[in-house]
Design a protein that fits this description.
The protein is α/β, with parallel strands linked by helices. The chain has one domain (about 10-75). Helix content is about 25%, strand content about 20%. The chain is built from 3 helices and 3 strands. It has helices spanning about 45-50, 65, 70-75, and strands at about 10-15, 30-35, 55-60. It has a 3-stranded parallel beta sheet, with no helix packed on it. The protein is flat. The chain starts with 9 loop residues before the first strand and ends in a 7-residue tail after the last helix.
């Protein structure tokens, strides 16, 4: 999401379905909001952060997802997905 704000603040949100409702609230404070679903993102995550000039990163998950090894591994896997 790109907004009318020209403040240099760019955030990426790594989330599962619970983060969908939260993301729109960030548009009042950020120039750009990138939303990444950790369950389906297959690209080069680190490369995307650099290419988009992201300077803030937020992980938002429901409490049950955040405390399961599956989701922890899924989030950790973002570091290597899509890297060539």
């Amino acid at each position: 999401m790109e907004t009318q704000h020209k403040n240099g603040r760019r955030i990426a949100i790594v989330k599962e379905s619970y983060g969908n409702a939260f993301a729109p609230f960030l548009t009042n404070n950020y120039e750009k909001v990138i939303v990444v679903d950790q369950r389906s993102y297959k690209g080069d995550f680190i490369g995307m952060l650099k290419a988009e000039g992201i300077n803030e990163l937020l992980f938002i998950n429901n409490i049950f997802a955040a405390h399961t090894q599956f989701h922890i591994d899924d989030i950790r896997g973002l570091m290597t997905r899509g890297v060539k």
